[in-house]
Design goal:
Number of strands of chain A: 11
Helix content of chain B: 10-25%
Mean pLDDT of chain B: 92
Distance between the termini of chain B: 89 Å
Shape of chain B: flat
Helix content of chain A: 10-25%
Radius of gyration of chain B: 32 Å
Number of strands of chain B: 24
CATH class of the largest domain in chain B: Mainly Beta
Low-confidence stretches of chain A: 1-23, 41-47
Largest sheet of chain B: 11 strands, antiparallel
Largest interface: A-B, 49 and 28 residues
Low-confidence stretches of chain B: 1-10, 26-34
Oligomer: heterodimer
Order of helices and strands of chain B: HEEEEEEEEEEHEEEEEEEEEEEEHEE
């Protein structure tokens, strides 16, 4: 018996191994085939599940508030010269929480430039105390002194004049409110002669941070 | 097994560092975002604070210029012998012909200056001569803190004296004291002068003071204690009216009368060196006195002058400031309300009138001191 048609795997004029190699698909052909199958399935699916649809939408606005600390009134720019051991200088400053967000805390950082023993000598140099009055301080002078017609509270106990991020206590911190502060700067009576003829220029930076996050 | 080429190693390292850096950056960013929140700051100042150039304080200075007219005739110059260039000399004991560590004269100076003020050009002025013709006197000296006896400076040496004087002509030798840099040191000063004399004889000293300046005034420091150890054995002489209770008092040269007389007085001139521009807030005089003879009663009143200009009168012949009939010093302190100007303070002379109502004898003065309370803005 003769066969006119070669058996599967047989190609006329070819050996069996050559036939297998000839039938091996390239990767491009495989990817193309899969893509065709997926497309076909998708079309069939769409046809199977198509129905009526309707949509609605809702929008809302989320806006962030503002946190603003200002000093609408300040006597801290008024220095004093010449001072002697035992002298005290009172200077008022109002801190206004004028943004829409309340604060959680306010810290004070003081720096000196130029600097001298007045600010570097933490024992005999300048010291600062800060008090708060529930109403605006009544000012007299210069030299400035202040009296409180309301209730006073301590914001900062006696500290060396230079400090970094020193926590302040008893502040209101509520958005829209104002705290009336009075800084009393003291040149200790124990200051010795080495503190004669010294000069320091002081800058005060009050930094407030927002209240903690909460559900809105 | 083949090894990877060096290029591949470098690439892996670079990749590793890149990954680490990325992780760190991501961590930082995440943390920052987690900690971030709103903040706001307000500033106050700047305000400048400057301290006074000289703090308020009382500075006391005795009188080293003293004129004694207790006898009612001419004034006797009773100045401190070592404080001025004049005819008054202080003779040391006999020196050796070579320097020795136990042969010196030592001077402690007064303390009238406000402390903590820079000093420039401080110098020790020593004026001396050999004892006799043909002799040579040499010296070198050391500077100490009086309070601690700490040596702070040496000027010259046994081999190289500061100076030698081969004549009997008084000569001033001024030596810069670089170690005296401020008035705190200046107010605590001791100078020890080592000497030798070719004939083993004394030196004749005319002047031993310290001069200099601060940014605000020039000054002279006067000796208040003199220790002569030229022989190797110390003999101490305090300036009579500089220190209270030191068993050294000035006894006037002549007897007082039993009544006050404008011709019988003593004049004390002060040198407080109050800086120009200072504000004098108060001033007073300490006058500690008693009779030289126990049982006598002595009384006093005084006037204040700037040169010949009368500034004020305290007490009178009819109403003395006080009288003292005890054998203890009367420690009078009299306020000088008239002493408000720096010029008057720096030229102040008090003219003290005294009498010995009992026996027309002498008196003793233990302390005559001007106290000025001032500051300099």
């Amino acid at each position: 018996m003769t066969r006119d048609t070669p058996f599967l795997g047989e190609v006329s004029g070819l050996a069996i191994d050559d036939n297998v190699k000839a039938m091996r698909l390239s990767p491009h052909k495989i990817v193309a085939s899969i893509a065709i199958l997926v497309a076909a399935a998708a079309i069939a699916g769409l046809g199977t599940y198509a129905t009526f649809t309707s949509t609605t939408s809702a929008t809302h606005t989320i806006a962030s508030g503002t946190l603003t600390l200002t000093a609408p009134f300040s006597r801290l720019g008024t220095g004093a010269s010449p001072i002697a051991a035992g002298d005290t200088m009172q200077r008022a400053i109002d801190l206004s929480y004028s943004g829409s967000i309340s604060f959680s805390a306010v810290t004070l950082t003081t720096t000196a430039s130029p600097s001298s023993l007045l600010d570097t000598d933490v024992t005999q140099g300048l010291h600062i105390v800060i008090d708060m009055c529930s109403v605006a301080w009544t000012e007299s002078g210069p030299p400035y002194t202040y009296t409180c017609g309301g209730v006073t509270s301590s914001v900062l106990a006696s500290s060396a004049i230079i400090g970094s991020n020193v926590a302040l206590s008893n502040l209101t911190l509520t958005a829209g409110s104002t705290d009336h502060l009075r800084a009393t700067i003291t040149f200790p009576s124990t200051a010795g002669n080495t503190l004669q003829n010294q000069s320091s220029t002081l800058t005060y930076l009050f930094t407030g941070t927002q209240r903690a996050g909460q559900s809105q | 097994m083949s090894r990877q080429p060096p290029d591949s190693l470098v690439s892996r390292r670079a990749l590793r560092w890149t990954v680490l850096a990325g992780v760190a950056a991501a961590t930082f960013t995440t943390a920052s975002l987690a900690l971030a929140g709103f903040n706001s700051a307000a500033s106050g100042g700047p305000g400048t604070y400057s301290s006074k150039r000289i703090f308020p304080g009382v500075r006391s200075s005795s009188a080293w210029t003293l004129r004694d007219a207790s006898g009612g005739a001419v004034e006797t110059n009773s100045d401190d012998t070592l404080s001025y260039t004049d005819a008054l000399l202080k003779t040391t004991g006999n020196w050796a012909t070579t320097f020795a560590s136990n042969r010196y004269v030592e001077l402690d100076f007064n303390s009238p200056r406000p402390g903590g003020v820079p000093v420039s050009s401080a110098q020790f002025n020593y004026r001396m001569a050999a004892n006799g013709a043909g002799e040579t006197a040499c010296f070198y000296f050391e500077v100490y803190r009086e309070s601690t006896s700490t040596l702070i400076g040496t000027h010259g040496s046994t081999g190289t004296p500061v100076a030698c004087n081969s004549t009997i002509i008084q000569t001033t030798y001024s030596t810069t004291l670089a170690e005296v840099t401020n008035t705190t040191i200046l107010n605590d000063l001791r100078v020890r002068v080592y000497g030798k004399e070719s004939g083993s004889r004394p030196m004749k000293q005319d002047l031993a003071n310290v001069t200099g300046s601060t940014p605000y005034t020039s000054f002279t420091m006067y000796e208040k204690i003199y220790r002569d150890q030229s022989t190797g054995t110390a003999a101490t002489t305090n300036w009579s009216v500089a220190t209270a209770g030191d068993s050294t008092a000035y006894i006037n040269v002549s007897n007082w009368a039993t009544t006050f007389s404008t011709l019988r007085y003593m004049k004390f001139t002060f040198d407080p060196a109050v800086p120009t521009g200072s504000v004098i807030t108060s001033a007073s005089v300490d006058f500690y006195y008693k009779a030289n003879t126990a049982g006598d009663t002595v009384c006093w009143y005084f006037e204040t002058y700037n040169g010949a200009t009368l500034l004020g009168t305290h007490g009178s012949s009819g109403t003395p400031v006080s009288c003292n009939s005890t054998n203890a010093f009367s420690t009078d302190n009299v306020t000088l309300a008239e002493l408000t100007s720096v010029t008057n303070a720096n030229n102040l002379t008090i003219k003290v009138y005294m009498k010995d109502t009992t026996g027309a004898r002498k008196s003793q003065m233990d302390l005559v001191q001007l106290n000025t309370n001032y500051y300099l803005d």
